[in-house]
Amino acid sequence: MPEGEPIKVAIVEDVRSLREGLSMLIDGTEGFRCIGAFRTMEEALERIARNMPDVALIDIGLPGMSGIEGMRLLKERHPSLTVLMLTVYDDDDRIFNALCAGACGYLLKKTPPARLLENIKEATTGGAPMSPEIARRVIQLFREIHPPERAECDLTPHETRVLKLLVEGHNYKTAAAKLGVSFNTICFHIKSIYEKLQVHSKSEAVAKALRHRLIK
Q1: pTM of the shown model
Q2: Which fold does the domain 7-139 belong to in CATH?
Q3: Fold (topology level) of 148-212
């Protein structure tokens, strides 16, 4: 995204008051612009390509097609689109399915407005924002999901540490600070992780880590 350009956000939310409130929040904040607010996934799938956003905020419980099902189609058509789930649901199945479908973050609707804007910005810089309750559930999922008989990924110990930080919601910059290494070093390790896991994005890496229990 060009430096200095506003972050373009699309919203998919069926509750009119919330949809309009989010639109006003985004349009009323410097550095952000709402380029579309849709009631259903069907409407979003039909119209979103006319003015592609940088980030899509998508509810799960929508009339007709669910947010998770619709996101899969969106990501197939527009792989570079960053998707954040914004929902009331905090159960394991929806969290897991959303991450596997390509969501880069999972936020609850009770997220304060200022924090929501921070999460949107974080997502555009490679972060994987999650509400605190969701982050705890993701960690618990690691403990509960049984791995296949053997997951052969050949990650080095350092790559495993980097992957764990991605799962916990760190972006490249904060992961570098956490490990005391340079930004370029993190980029090098993440490229290697993607190659070994045969994935192309952070959300795919997180989903594979969940399915194969690559993080202890």
Answers
A1: 0.67
A2: Rossmann fold (3.40.50)
A3: Arc Repressor Mutant, subunit A (1.10.10)
Q: Which two tokens stand for residue 42?
A: 């069907």
* C-alpha to C-alpha distance for 165 and 2, rounded to whole angstroms: 27
CA dist 54 and 140 (Å) reads: 30
Q: Tokens representing 185?
A: 């070093």
In the chain, CATH 1.10.10.10 covers: 148-212
pLDDT in tens, 18-44: 999 999 999 999 999 999 999 999 999
How far apart CA 133 and CA 89 sit, in angstroms, is 11
DSSP three-state, residue 12: strand
Q: How many helices (H) and strands (E) does the chain have?
A: 10, 5
Alpha carbon distance 102, 111 (integer Å): 21
Residue 186 contacts residue 164 (beta carbons within 8 Å) = no
From the list 215, 203, 205, 207, the residue with the least C-alpha distance to 142 is: 215
Q: What token pair was written down for 74?
A: 């969106």
Q: How many CB atoms lie within 10 A of CB 48?
A: 21
